[in-house]
Description:
By secondary structure, the chain is an alpha/beta fold. It has helices spanning 14-23, 77-91, 175-184, 207-219, and strands at residues 3-10, 30-33, 95-96, 101-106, 112-116, 119-128, 167-171, 189-193. The longest helix has 15 residues, at 77-91.
Amino acid sequence: MAEQFDVVIVGGGQAALAASYFLRRTGLRYVILDNGTQAGGAWVHGWDSLHLFSPASYSSLPGWPMPDTPDGGYPTRDEVLDYLHRYEARYAPPIRRPVMVECVERANGKLLTVRTSAGDFLGRAVIGATGTWSAPFVPDVAGRDLFGGTQLHSSHYRNVAPFAGRRVLVVGGGNSGAQIMAELSLVAQATWVTLHDPIFLPDDVDGRVLFERATARVLGGPSAMPTSGFGDI
């Protein structure tokens, strides 16, 4: 028999944890369904040198700020993962792992049925917090199936070691392409292909500046230093 909840959250990353923080304050009965085997969401699959592009204080989850790094720099992948693991341990959200969600259907006028590898769940509402890393997009370039070399999506990239001394083509001008190209260029004959010319920010502009400007536009005035000031529970 299907378990019934007020809210079913699909996904177990940062968005799911943030939603959980506020839901637990309402008294609603909810559950988080995550197809991963551990905390961390997409960060589990990030490459070794991946890091944030803003200070820890700008990437905190509600209730508990992310600790500053020892050197005052941007948190690394491992530091973000450690924070997410400890955040889960601190608040003990109701997460079921690993559970693969297959589909969401309308059960009747008021409930939704979430069909999963662990059975059906009923909910008055469903929050989608799956992110995009579970379905990487690989362009269907003509002749791709005939290419005899290695083809790798950024979601499966780990470090430069397998590419040292080789010829590598990096396709894509986003953050992933830029970061991977930067480190591959140090050990390989790397070429970067982008649809448009990349636009690089000045060295003194990072995520902190971008967040402040975006907040100011939304609020119509200058933004204050974020403190994740919702308080602990």
